[in-house]
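Class prep. Protein, please:
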Amino acid sequence: MSEDPKNWDVATKLIRGGLARSPFMETAEALYLTQGFTYDSAEGADRRFSGEDPGFVYSRFNNPTVKMFEDRLALLEGAEVCRATATGMAAVHSALMGLVRAGDHVVAGNALFGSCRWLIAEWLPRFGVETTFVDATDLSAWEAAIKSNTKAVLIETPSNPVLEITDIAAVSKLAHAVGAKVIVDNVFATPIFQQPLELGADVVVYSATKHIDGQGRVLGGAILTTEAINEEFYRDSMRHTGPSLSPFNAWVMLKGLETLDLRVRRQTDTAAALADVMAEHKKVTRVLYPFRTDHPGYEVAKKQMTGAGTVIALDLGSREAAFKFLNALEIVDISNNLGDAKSMATHPPTTTHRSVPEEMRPLLGVTEGGVRLSVGLESLSDLTRDVTRALDQA
């Protein structure tokens, strides 16, 4: 009797999940750099394209290396289907556009990544989709906004960049009452620390560029859901619009998944310690980290997450102080990325959230003195010294 991979522990899923060896029985996953495939006969091609025979037909639709990545991530997430995409924003865009049409309504939290907010505020309305933003921490706001023609709800928790926490189970219950689908951007929590599908969400999206690769090499994204939702809303739209992940990037991220659990847990341990250090510094006006008891969403975070993640938000009171802090860092890089093995600090108003109108930024918690710190794999002692020295100069 063969083992069911669903029963494996996380560490085993990340190493063995989705593994499909070629006849050469290679140790590492095979990289299939091919646009297309051939068939034994015209009849064979007919059966393949009709779906009668399983297999690959074109790498825009499916590819053996990409499928291994999809199967491994689906196993980890507890999803029936994973659809890999070229970037995280391709995943968010495809997840939303597959669910809606003119006349439909979408609800999302105020505190979204800048590009996600642009999609909902600027892009969807061009196609006749009504959109509403709410305070994502206020269940009464969600309840008031969700209505009979709401088809999709987008939750980002913890949110980018100020780590707001949204109650996934409670919002999912409200959305499902009108038949809406719930999409959760799970990038900050990672699949290690939060399982949105188990909490009631219908679709999970990732920028795999972040922790899943986690080493600054390639771009990628993923949509995870049920077979039924994939068939109804995503299979045809993604086949024909082509937001495909390259096989090479899929291969890189397959290798990234092998160390995901180890990396994220180590980074999170360091982040928790560093958050406490910064909270005590006189130059810091506020530190936000989900498992600190002074975080506004602490109770919900502890209920739905098993770890607080690798990102810390802090406020230094002014842009001048934030810039002084960033410029004084010697180990931590100034970058707009996160979830990397290298620690990175970001000033959201001038980078990731620059597209958000200035008057709207306070609604997202984006302040001029705000800094987002993504904690990497460097030693805690070195990071503490670097951050403390930089804060002293802020």
